[in-house]
Amino acid sequence: MPVTFPPALQAGHRVAIVSPARKISAADLAPAIATLESWGLEVVLGESIAGDFHQFAGPDDLRRRDFQQQLDAPGIRAILCARGGYGTARIVDGLDFTAFRRAPKWVAGFSDITVLNAHLLALDHASIHGVMPVLFHQAGGELALETLRRALFGEAFQPITAASHTLNRVGTATGELVGGNLSLLQTITGTASQASFAGRILFLEDLDEYLYHVDRMMLHLHRSGQLQGLAGLVVGHFSQMRDNAIPFGVTAEEIIDRYAQLYNFPVAYGFPVGHEADNLAMVVGQTVTLTVDASGGRLTA
Known about the structure:
- It is built from 8 helices and 13 strands.
- With 301 residues, it is an alpha/beta fold.
- The chain has 2 domains: 14-152, Rossmann fold (3-Layer(aba) Sandwich), CATH 3.40.50; 160-300, LD-carboxypeptidase A C-terminal domain-like (Glucose Oxidase, domain 1), CATH 3.50.30.60.
- The strands form 2 sheets. It has a 7-stranded mixed sheet with strand order 6-13-12-7-8-9-10. A 6-stranded mixed sheet has the order 2-1-3-4-5-11, with helices on both faces.
- Helix 7 (211-223) runs parallel beside helix 8.
- The model has no long low-confidence stretch (mean pLDDT 98).
């Protein structure tokens, strides 16, 4: 089925900020709220913003109830996930998307929110993999924030480029974007949140993982058949990678290259997506063209 895209935001629309994973305070969100209001939006804070249950933004049921309320509320035109952490997978199976499918709205976030990005694509709905309110004003993140605004307001997609990389594999591919955090994509394999990679352009990023974990996760994607039929691969930031006392011996990018070489799709490394300030918005489900040549990699729509 074709992917459904929510209506673009307009000045005067109401948007909700919720936290389906780790806890956060309203004070931490004050700068982001001011930014959203400067875009002409009215901001509603969900119940989970005041939630506090160990590391979570309230117990699972509170976070699920809050997200459900924003999904169902006809006056809410977009749901912005305040931050990542861990916890979204614990609530996603309890969500009812019936009202959402009748009146789609943007859902935006990354990292742990990859669960929602993938789940929505499995339901044939687009969402935004992009900077979250807690990081709106991260130093060097001005362009990332602008690309989120452009995606929310339905403005034309601007090409995303990356410099030439020694591991790049040249070629051209067209397909819908799918992906996000490698750890979460591996975790949701075999669940209702798993979106097909077939014929699509997969983008990957991750943070704070042991190198052997990266290998184990890529091996899982390979052995489970998810890389078979992929149109193309975009590799973003693999930040703050860890190693053991006995080194694994290769970088995260070299690990990914080992598995990419088993297939024939084009691959581009060094894209500005992931846990760095230059985390440009990617609309999951959008059809794009990946071009990889001697000058580097480009995503165009």
